[in-house]
Design goal:
heterodimer, A: 95 residues, two-stranded antiparallel sheet, 3 helices, B: 489 residues, alpha+beta, 8-stranded mixed sheet, 16 strands, 20% strand, ATP-binding (chain A), GatC (chain A), Asp/Glu-ADT_sf_sub_c (chain A), nucleotide-binding (chain A), asparaginyl-tRNA synthase (glutamine-hydrolyzing) activity (chain A)
């Protein structure tokens, strides 16, 4: 499997990364090397191995359903570039 | 060729936990913007999610209620997309191993039959925040209070064949989650959101047609309207030889218009993968059995019991058993008057008419179940007739007669509504009416005997009027007939 230019552009768009046109061949090469490694790993017979969702051999701990957080809006919005009426302001999104 | 409609539903149900699914921030509705959005909800660097045990229990409860397989191992996955009201850049959801697997519910159709609808799965996920597109100097405002509120997404099989079936299914799920107490089910506040997948195919065909998804259906009425609209739209396109575009559509209930939101070409590529911040959730039989032991009586079981215990019709039992508040009201009223059918008629008739026209829930009824029951007991023991009972009900609704026990009796006394059952008194009133209505009496005498029954109404009305509505109608009818027929001989 090998990635072409348009696939690299699509991956960059999905990750919202801006890339230079001139760097695309290099990114394609790098990504193709990773895919080659994955191809190689897929040669291993794993039919008897149960897929794992997490590398840690542990299970999720649960938290009791209780409100433990207090209002920290002022602190949390101190670093926000723009706020108004308690809202975070972001560039206009229209769907 | 005849078209067949195929419908599947995705329902997002907000779980009624106190705190969020992965943080200790409050989920209470209506707080000031961003006052219930903590560092975890805002996805600040270094924060990690910790799973809320109550969200897990609620999801399992739902799974047991729809007779579903419970995922003893369930895994959280990341659904990746960018939107400003999703701070992490992904929604924590479940993909391959959901908490609830295949289950089913039974819906009652108008023709009296029951249909089984499959539930494919139900999985836990977190809600996003809210974007406010009002003008903030050309910017969008973001409120993250809702971000991280636990959702149970309930996905049905494409088993429904009409808008009516889809609504019956959605109502059934709604009554189950509210009966279980795992959601407030408030559609206007977004606690219960339905997305509807609709496609058409020729009747008898195996393969499904191309489907569209309609979102934003925040009432059952809108859902029904939106489905009918979409079926018509697709039928028009297909009959003109066109093709349906797979797309997401947005329905506006106020304008009754739907528009395309995005097509499949521009659809998101979510790149799901297991969330490395959360470990697999493992539960065992003891955990599941402990939850099973807490299940309340569910609507279907109550429906059956109401038919058997109270002798109600299938329809009446269905209406009264759907929600625990309605069911409890009916049972309390029945206990007071010892006549289930009378209580059923009044709860579904006079009471629900008043509640609807005042947009009130039964839990907020100004007339308590005890008060209604005591009023009905007075109909049952012949103290008052049905007409007077409606007057008493009106008075109770307005808060007359006090709020305590005996309110109905106090009103009956104060308004002098006690039924006159003394036949001497009734006969006297009848004699007066007959004496004052010579032309009508002559008409009655001249009429064919089989037509006289209908003419009785005039005299009935006069006598009831004379008694100010307090005469026993059955007695009046009988005595009146005897007296008039005697004049005919």
């Amino acid at each position: 499997m090998s990635l072409d230019r348009s696939e690299v552009e699509k991956i960059a768009h999905l990750a919202r990364l801006q890339i230079n046109e001139s760097d695309i061949p290099e990114y394609a090469d790098n990504l193709n090397n990773i895919l080659a490694l994955v191809d190689q790993m897929q040669q291993v017979d794993t039919s008897a191995v149960e897929p794992m969702a997490n590398p840690l051999d542990a299970v999720q701990r649960l938290r009791p359903d209780a409100v433990t957080e207090t209002d920290q809006r002022e602190n949390l919005q101190a670093n926000a570039p723009a706020t108004e009426d308690g809202l975070f302001l972001v560039p206009k999104v229209i769907e | 060729m005849e078209w067949e409609t195929v419908i599947g539903l995705e329902i997002h149900c907000q779980l009624a936990t106190d705190s969020k699914i992965f943080s200790g921030a409050s989920t209470a509705f209506g707080a000031e913007p961003n006052t219930q959005a903590c560092a975890v909800d805002l996805a600040l660097p270094g924060t990690l999610p910790v799973f809320n045990d109550n969200a897990l229990k609620m999801a399992v409860k739902f799974g047991l209620a729809i007779d579903a397989q419970i995922g003893k191992k369930s895994v959280f996955a990341r659904k990746n997309y960018f939107y400003p009201d999703l701070p992490k850049g992904y929604q924590t959801s479940q993909m391959d191993d959901p908490i609830v697997g295949i289950g089913h519910v039974d819906i009652q159709l108008k023709d009296g039959t029951t249909k089984r609808v499959g539930v494919t799965r139900a999985h836990l996920e977190e809600d996003a925040g809210k974007s406010l597109h009002e003008d903030y100097h050309g910017m969008t405002g973001i409120d993250l209070n809702r971000a991280g509120t636990p959702l149970l997404e309930i996905v049905s099989e494409p088993d429904m064949r009409s808008a009516e079936e889809a609504v019956a299914y959605a109502k059934k799920i709604h009554s189950i989650v509210t009966n279980l107490g795992i959601s407030d089910g408030d559609m206007s506040q977004g606690s219960f959101r339905c997305d509807v997948n609709v496609s058409l195919r020729y009747k008898g065909e195996e393969e499904f047609g191309t489907r569209t998804e309609t979102k934003n259906l925040n009432s059952f009425k809108f859902m029904e309207d939106a489905i009918k609209l979409e079926v018509e739209r697709q039928m028009d396109i297909l009959e003109d030889g066109g093709e349906i575009t797979q797309e997401t559509r947005l329905y506006n209930g106020d304008t009754k218009v739907a528009r395309s939101m995005r097509s499949k070409e521009e659809a998101n590529d979510y790149r799901y993968f297991p969330c490395p911040d959360l470990l697999p959730v493992m539960i065992d039989d003891d955990f599941i059995d402990a939850i099973r032991a807490t299940l309340p009586e569910l609507p279907d079981a109550r429906h059956q019991r109401f038919m058997e215990q109270y002798g109600l019709s299938d329809y009446d039992a269905g209406v009264l058993s759907g929600y625990s508040d309605t069911a409890a009201y009916f049972e309390t009223a029945t206990e007071q008057c010892d006549d289930a059918k009378l209580a059923a008629n009044w709860v579904m008739g006079e009471l629900s008419k008043h509640l609807n026209s005042n947009s009130l829930e039964i839990a907020d009824s100004p007339v308590s179940a005890e008060q209604l029951g005591q009023l009905l007991a007075r109909i049952k023991d012949d103290t008052i007739n049905g007409k007077a009972a409606k007057q008493v009900f009106e008075a109770l609704w307005k808060g007359e007669g006090g709020n305590g026990e005996g309110a109905a009796d106090a009103i009956i006394e104060a308004k002098g509504l006690k039924q006159v059952t003394d036949s001497g008194a009734i006969e006297a009133m009848i004699d007066e009416v007959i004496a004052a209505a010579t032309p009508q009496v002559e008409q009655y005498k001249a009429a064919e005997p089989e037509k006289r029954g209908k003419m009785l109404g005039f005299f009935m009305g006069k006598v009831m009027q004379a008694s100010k509505g307090t005469a026993n109608p059955g007695q009046v009818n009988k005595l009146l007939k005897t007296k008039l027929d005697a004049l005919c001989d």
